[in-house]
Design brief:
By secondary structure, this protein is an alpha+beta fold. It is built from 2 helices and 5 strands, in the order ββααβββ.
Length: 94
């Protein structure tokens, strides 16, 4: 299953500045593992030592937050789009 993964700007140094990459897997967790194989160091930016997604990393599958689906166990299918979006912290801007 080939999934298109949208890489945020801060992580593009790990993907040779590629904005999107293709990865294989049947679940989000497998896609992340495959990304780690292609781009060493990427998984540690996304997951903690236990393999759990970091709090400040949001992952969307076809526009839906995987936290409201099955998390890393969310199934993916050929042609899906996975977006990695770092959380933005801040307060009131006014």
């Amino acid at each position: 299953m080939s999934v298109t993964v949208i890489i945020p700007t801060p992580l593009r140094k790990l993907t040779n500045e590629q904005e999107t990459v293709d990865a294989d897997g049947a679940k989000v967790a497998e896609v992340i593992e495959q990304l780690q194989t292609q781009f060493p160091g990427l998984k540690e930016r996304l997951c903690d030592d236990n393999g759990v997604l970091r709090r400040f990393v949001n992952v969307f599958l076809n526009g839906e937050d995987i936290r409201f689906l099955d998390g890393p166990e969310t199934p993916v299918k050929d042609g899906d789009e996975l977006s990695i979006i770092p959380a933005i912290a801040g307060g009131c801007c006014c």
